[in-house]
Amino acid sequence: MTEASKPAGLRERQRQAIRADTRTAALELFEKRGFDDVSVAEIAAEAGISERTFFRHFPTKEDVVLTLLESYGPDILSRLETESLDKPWLEVLGDTYIGMAGVEVTMEGEFATELDRAIVQVFRLAQRSTRLQAGIDARMRVWQDDIAQIVARRLGVDIDADPRPRIWGAVTIAVVTTNSARRAALHGSVIGAPAEGWQALTDLLQPPP
Question: In this structure, which CATH number among 3.40.1190.10, 3.30.230.10, 3.40.30.10, 1.10.357.10 belongs to the domain 61-204?
Answer without folding.
Answer: 1.10.357.10
